[in-house]
Specification:
Layout: H1 8-12, E1 15-21, E2 35-37, E3 40-46, H2 50-59, E4 63-70, H3 72-78, E5 124-133, E6 143-149, E7 162-166, E8 180-183, E9 197-203, E10 206-208, E11 215-217, H4 219-225, E12 232-239, E13 252-258, H5 263-273, H6 275-280, E14 289-296, H7 305-314, E15 319-325, H8 339-345, H9 347-354, E16 359-365, H10 369-382, H11 388-397, E17 401-405
Parallel strand pairs: 13-14, 13-16, 14-15, 16-17
Antiparallel strand pairs: 1-3, 1-4, 2-3, 5-6, 5-12, 6-9, 7-8, 7-12, 10-11
Helix pairs in contact: 8-10, 9-10
């Protein structure tokens, strides 16, 4: 874990490479001359002078495209016009070196992603195999883990995709209910690692009608939460390419989620750390750093708590688990602890991580949560003179900043 008490002398010994547009070849850094690379200028800057150098670049009309850690290998590569990244602590597993070049980090090949194998007019009928409550006693609301049988069809999917559910019955106009999409909570092999099932994490939606004040329950979520084992359900899909898990087994995977937004992250983590999954995927042996920042109202609402904490205990160097429990924990201002406060607390570390080419960020949960995350990251990047909105756009273009909120 990043330690904020690191001495100043140690900090000043760290070097970072700025990729800058808009400066001529004579734009000189404090410690080394810039090197021309792909239409930009690369400037090596010590940690202690990052703010001053950022301000100097901006005053000269330059634009900071990216900032990367540098090491001895990077300095050697710069003499040949290239850049190599340092292997930071957040991407290193015990006894393994994960130093990477820019070309080694890779996202999922989206051309090979299965999409719409089953459509609304001809859905797949899958039997409910199990329907289990995830919220502990005295928790808030109802959240179910549901598993469906896929053995009678050709529905297959990847981690990070969604499926559609068409609930039984008709709406108030006598028409079939509309399809609802749910993030898949299982790996591509299913919970039983036999390629014959798909799982969902579903919260029963309940709210008060603004006019009558009466309690209203969501049509599809109520239908799913009340399913009997053996009951068949109309399923469509899969769909979605935004949240696909990167293929790189040495990557930093940062996950920020609230409530049932944990669904795709469960799929990622099971693929990374469950014994049977690791046996089923010899070509994907995760050795990187996975970090889940999970927002929930109460301890009883921590979904998949025992399994998450078991994985953290078994792989302490590869999996970090951070909770934001709003009704039990306090933020620095004495208010409720939400996910954006955890991001703000760890903003310096997260900012360093996203500057590494093999860091992928995934955000899933209630719409609006991304605003607080962006605010915290913007405050930190500004210290280096970097506009967060612009930098986030470069991350999204590289498929390294992925958001799915609802």
């Amino acid at each position: 874990m990043y330690n904020s008490s690191t001495s100043t002398s140690a900090a000043n010994s760290r070097l970072y490479v700025y990729e800058v547009e808009g400066l001529g070849q004579n734009g000189k850094a404090s410690d080394s001359a810039p090197v021309r690379h792909s239409g930009t200028v690369l400037i090596t800057v010590p940690y202690g002078r990052m703010n001053q150098e950022s301000q100097r670049i901006l005053k000269l009309g330059g634009k900071i495209v990216s900032i990367r850690p540098a090491n001895a290998a990077a300095s050697k590569d710069q003499s040949n016009g290239g850049v190599a990244n340092a292997a930071a602590s957040d991407q290193t597993a015990p006894g393994k070196s994960t130093k990477k070049s820019m070309t080694q980090a890779k996202a999922k090949d989206k051309k090979k992603v299965p999409v719409n194998i089953y459509r609304p007019k001809e859905p797949y009928l899958g039997a409910c195999l199990s329907n289990d409550e995830l919220v502990a006693e005295n928790g808030i609301g109802t959240v179910k883990h549901l598993k469906f049988d896929l053995s009678e069809g050709d529905l297959h999917y990847l981690e990070g995709q969604s499926i559609g559910i068409i609930p039984d019955g008709e709406d108030e106009n006598g028409k079939p209910h509309k399809i609802r999409l749910y993030s898949i909570a299982s790996t591509q092999h299913g919970d039983d690692v036999d390629d014959k099932s798909v799982s969902l994490c579903v919260r029963q939606l309940e709210y008060k009608d603004p006019e009558s004040g009466e309690a209203v329950k969501g049509v599809c979520s109520t239908f799913l939460c009340n399913l009997d084992v053996g009951q068949k359900v109309k399923i469509t899909g899969p769909v979605g390419k935004e949240m696909l898990l990167a293929d790189d087994p040495n990557a930093n995977i940062v996950m920020m989620g609230t409530g049932t937004g944990i669904a795709p992250f469960r799929a990622y983590l099971w693929r990374m750390f469950k014994d049977k999954e690791r046996e089923a995927n010899p070509d994907y042996s995760f050795n990187g750093k996975a970090w889940l920042i999970f927002g929930i109202p109460k301890t009883e609402n921590i979904l998949y708590k025992e399994e998450l904490e078991e994985m953290q205990s078994k792989y302490p160097d590869n999996f970090e688990l951070t909770y934001a429990i709003s009704r039990e924990q306090k933020n620095s201002e004495g208010g409720r602890m939400y996910i954006q406060h955890r991001v703000a607390e760890n903003a310096e570390r997260l900012w360093k991580m996203v500057q590494q080419d093999n860091t992928y960020v995934y955000i899933c949960g209630l719409k609006g949560m991304e605003d607080g995350i962006d605010e915290a990251m913007a405050a930190e990047s500004a210290k280096a003179g970097v506009d967060w909105n612009e930098y986030r756009r470069t991350l999204k273009k590289a498929h390294r900043w992925n958001v799915e909120t609802y």
